[in-house]
Amino acid sequence: MRARIAGLYAITPDLDDSHELQRRVRAALRGGARIVQYRNKTASPALRIEQARMLQSLCADFGVPLIINDHTGLVAESGASGLHLGGDDGSLATARAALGPERLLGGSCYDRLDLAKAAVAAGADHIAFGSFFPSTVKPGAVRPPLDLLTRAKASFDVPVVAIGGITLDNAPALIAAGADAIAVISAVFSAPDIEQAAHAFQSLFPEQS
């Protein structure tokens, strides 16, 4: 059975220091992160494989799925639980065929329900919308309205993920609007106490805490 996408979805920052990356992800997992996505846009192929395998081992210790951003082949090379593709990262249908039916597959849908419909038809088992708030990671990203989450929940029978500039102050509004999971980078991994920050975010989902 595939893991359900729900709760704190922690997305890794770009770090070449694998030991520091491991430390930060372990702290997030101790705090209660329910999903980890490995995203490193600057790593070399060799470093990417090294880090993905390391994180897969770490996530397995906590019983948490690791999702790979963008690189389909890295899922099999690392033993990760799934893949996430952005709008320019390739075909979801091709990725589903390569991954098989059991692995997780998510797609970025930005501010568009039509992209979500196409993603689900192509085999995505969860869909992500955003950036809902200003983001230092993607400062030029489109900004959907909160009620897009509500409409997505009413339209599709798959988990809905919110992303983009999410903080402890604005996350409750996303959850109230229908987000099953909140994808966070900076507010977790740049926090002075990563474990405490992760715990605070996961506590916003009382039925999972």
Detail the topology: elements first, then pairings.
Layout: E1 7-11, H1 18-31, E2 35-38, H2 45-62, E3 66-69, H3 72-78, E4 82-85, H4 92-99, E5 104-110, H5 113-122, E6 126-129, H6 147-155, E7 160-163, H7 171-177, E8 181-184, H8 186-189, H9 194-202
Helix pairs in contact: 1-2, 1-9, 2-3
How would you characterize the overall build of this protein?
By secondary structure, the protein is an alpha/beta fold. It has a single domain (7-202), classed as Alpha-Beta Barrel (TIM Barrel). Helix content is 41%, strand content 17%. It contains nine helices and eight strands. It has an eight-stranded parallel barrel with strand order 1-2-3-4-5-6-7-8, surrounded by eight helices. Strand 7 (160-163), helix 7 and strand 8 (181-184) form a beta-alpha-beta unit. The longest helix has 18 residues, at 45-62. The model has no long low-confidence stretch (mean pLDDT 95).
Number of helices: 9
How much helix, percentage-wise, in residues?
40-55%
Count of individual beta strands: 8
* Overall pLDDT metric: 95
The N- and C-terminal alpha carbons lie at a distance of 21 Å
Helix-strand sequence: EHEHEHEHEHEHEHEHH
CATH architecture: Alpha-Beta Barrel
Number of domains: 1
Strand content: 15-25%
Largest sheet features = 8 strands, parallel, barrel
**Low-pLDDT segments:** none
Mass-distribution shape: globular
State the fourth-level CATH superfamily.
Aldolase class I
**What is the CATH C level class, in words?**
Alpha Beta
Gyration radius over CA: 16 Å
Q: Strand order of the main beta sheet, please?
A: 1-2-3-4-5-6-7-8
Q: What kind of oligomer do you see?
A: single chain
Task: Quickly give the structural class.
Answer: alpha/beta
Find the CATH topology: TIM Barrel
